[in-house]
From TrEMBL, chain A:
The name this protein goes by in its record: Heme ABC transporter ATP-binding protein
Family named by the database record: Belongs to the ABC transporter superfamily.
Keywords: ATP-binding, Nucleotide-binding, Translocase, Transport
InterPro entries documented for this protein: AAA+_ATPase, ABC_transporter-like_ATP-bd, ABC_transporter-like_CS, P-loop_NTPase
PROSITE patterns: ABC_TRANSPORTER_1 (PS00211), ABC_TRANSPORTER_2 (PS50893)
NCBIfam families: PRK13548.1
Alphabetized SMART domains for the sequence: AAA
CDD domains named in the record: ABC_Iron-Siderophores_B12_Hemin
Residues covered by the ABC transporter domain: 2-242
Segments traversing the membrane: none
From TrEMBL, chain B:
Keyword Membrane: yes
Top-level division of the source organism's lineage: Bacteria
Protein name: Iron ABC transporter permease
Species, as recorded: Chelativorans petroleitrophicus
Main location group: membrane
Keywords carried by this UniProt record: Cell membrane, Membrane, Transmembrane, Transmembrane helix, Transport
Length: 263, 364
């Protein structure tokens, strides 16, 4: 379990997170939702070990700040929001960096073909020889996901559940690939791993998450199942805009929901 | 029977797409062979007609000692061999420190010569040359032949640390700030060096002028003994840095998420750059552009994977510097052109070409 209690983070003199309690269990996809500037990304960064924090963050029971980078890397992988690359690496070379710490959990001879398998999983089979810098933003994001998957390929290793921390994993993806990424997250949780994902799309959250944590002004204001948090009053208040859950829009405005996609 | 060709191509077929490690290993072999050839040529050619084959035969005990003139033996053993050895050492050090610095700053334009590290190392060296008899006397008597490379190392280290401090904010290194801070630091080191040159006497001035342009001339086994261990320290560290530098290409946060101890990696890279650059500058002066040309060419051929880029840079850097040295020795006989001029004549246009190619991406 990844657990934070009374988590406080300041950047400069500004208090970004104040007293956040948070838990992400193995076997579940935990979504973090909330308006811009509510502290979602800061929460993911703190849970990734990028920021000094007050309070406590534990990773499978161990305090994060006392773990060496290599120890944390064996337990969780982090997908960044956007990643530029400074040198002309091929797609395969980028994905292979995920195996760097040597904790994929696969056998050595399987590790040879792991980049290809990870790329196939994110619908980028045949892209291995391309240059990362030549790909579109959405393709780059999926290459990064493939790299992250390599790092924690087996969701449970040596009895320890492992975690995927995804910061806006679908932000530059079309709907097909949004669903693909969320299915990968679900499958990872289904095999006993844990997933924490910052999501903007409430419908996608409702369709794919087991639990949701709602952030506002640096606090976790609600947590529960998607049905618990998808309430008119809570959403209208948090997003500061009158929203109605489950009401078909008036008139003929067409709409499409991720929930309607067939597996 | 399988020919070498068949074996090679079979192996290449088995290589997955996008995996350049087989190509890189082949390149390392070719570069090593090239260095052997270039180094042999470097020892065999020179102003005197001393014959290398005669000396080698004598070493191997194939001919008695008296068939060899005393002069030939001295020319080969005390002049050409140390010069070639120094060329290999310095060429490798300059190219590797270029590659390390580019990996550290995540930018192909970072080079100790361009961002003022060499100038800082030069200041340290000049200080020892000029003040070694007076103010810095105790330092010189304490460290002996190592005083010069250590002073250059300190100058290079101070500059690199300062540069990194100025150009990096919250784990992000600004290219524009780095280049501009480099200009400022180079200017400052240059000015301080100028003051020291002003204080120098006639004999020191002659040393300084020749040294400032960069040269492998005057190579002695003592110089190699002085610079060798410092440069070797940097080389020993590089294999440990390679994977971390690859991860660092993704950014500092992503590298840490992959398990890389980023602060330690950066400190080790900075120390290695300062050691390799400092020691090279101390024994051969300001030889520029090897550090930017070599890694860039290699990235085009074998890709940026540091496991291969670092050793390949060492091999190609050594070869290129020996070739430049051959040009400098033979282009205006019997005089010798400082090698720094040769590398700048070829290197500066190359640098401009890199800038032109990357103009869109640089976003200064």
């Amino acid at each position: 379990m990844i657990e934070a209690s009374s988590l406080t983070v300041s950047i400069g003199h500004k208090l970004i997170l104040s007293g956040v309690d948070f838990a992400a269990r193995p076997g579940e996809v935990t979504a973090v939702v909330g308006p811009n500037g509510s502290g979602k990304s800061t929460l993911i960064k703190a849970l990734s070990g990028d920021l000094p924090y007050g309070g406590s963050i534990t990773l499978n029971g161990r305090e994060l700040s006392s773990m060496r980078p290599a120890e944390a890397a064996a337990l969780r992988a982090v997908l960044p929001q956007a990643a530029s690359l400074s040198f002309p690496y091929t797609v395969r070379e980028v994905v292979r960096l995920g195996i760097l710490g040597g904790h994929s959990g696969t056998l050595p001879h399987q590790e040879q073909s792991l980049p290809e398998r990870a790329l196939a999983r994110v619908d980028l089979a045949g892209f291995a020889g391309r240059y990362y810098q030549e790909l579109s933003g959405g393709e780059q994001q999926r290459v990064q996901l493939a790299r992250v998957l390599c790092q924690v390929w087996k969701p449970v290793l040596d009895g320890q559940p492992r975690y995927l921390l995804l910061d806006e994993p679908v932000s530059s993806l079309d709907i097909k690939h949004q669903l693909l990424v969320m299915r990968i997250a679900r499958a990872f949780a289904g095999e006993g791993g844990g997933v924490i994902a910052v999501l903007h799309d409430l419908n996608l959250m409702a369709a794919c998450a087991d639990r949701a944590v709602v952030m506002k002004n640096g606090r976790a204001v609600a947590a529960g199942t998607p049905a618990d948090v998808m309430r008119n009053g809570l959403l209208s208040d948090v997003f500061d805009c009158a929203l109605k859950v489950g009401v078909v829009p008036q008139g003929a405005t067409p709409f499409v929901l991720p929930q309607t996609a067939e597996e | 029977m399988l020919s070498a060709r068949t074996i090679l191509f079979r192996r290449l077929e088995a290589v997955p797409e996008g995996d350049r490690s087989a190509r890189a290993r082949l390149a390392l072999l070719v570069l090593a062979a090239m260095l052997v050839v270039v180094a042999s040529l470097s020892v065999a050619t020179g102003a005197s007609d001393a014959s290398l084959t005669a000396v080698v035969k004598w070493w191997l005990g194939l001919v008695p000692e008296d068939t060899l003139s005393q002069r030939d033996r001295i020319v080969i053993q005390e002049i050409r061999l140390p010069r070639t050895a120094l060329g290999i050492l310095v060429g490798a050090a300059l190219a590797v420190s270029g590659a390390l610095m580019q990996g550290l700053f995540r930018n192909p334009l970072a080079d100790p010569g361009i961002v003022g590290v060499s100038a800082g190392a030069g200041l340290g060296a000049i200080a020892v040359i000029v003040l070694g008899g007076t103010v810095l006397g105790p330092v010189v008597s304490l460290f002996g032949i190592y005083a010069l490379p250590l002073a250059a190392f300190s100058g290079g280290l101070a500059t690199t640390l300062l540069l990194y401090r100025v150009a990096t904010r919250r784990g992000q290194t600004s290219i524009a700030t780095m280049l501009l801070a480099g200009i400022a630091l180079a200017a400052l080191s240059g000015a301080l060096s100028g003051i020291l040159v002003y204080l120098a006497d006639d004999r020191q001035l002659r040393d300084l002028t020749f040294w400032a342009l960069g040269s492998l001339g005057g190579a002695t086994w003592t110089k190699i003994l002085a610079a060798g261990p410092v440069i070797a320290l940097a080389f020993v560290a590089t294999p440990l840095l390679a994977r971390g530098l690859d991860a660092l290409a993704l950014g500092e946060a992503s590298a840490r998420h992959l398990g890389v101890p980023v602060q330690r990696l950066k400190a080790a890279a900075i120390l290695s750059v300062a050691a390799a650059t400092g020691a090279s500058v101390a024994v051969s002066g300001g030889i520029g552009f090897i550090g930017i040309v070599v890694p860039h060419l290699l990235r085009l051929i074998i890709g940026p994977d540091h496991r291969f880029l670092l050793p390949a840079s060492a091999l190609l850097g050594a070869s290129l510097l020996l070739l430049a040295d051959s040009v400098s020795r033979t282009i205006v006989p019997p005089a010798e052109l400082p090698i720094g001029i040769v590398t700048a004549v070829f290197g500066a246009p190359f640098f401009l070409w890199v800038l032109l190619r990357r103009r869109g991406v640089l976003d200064l």
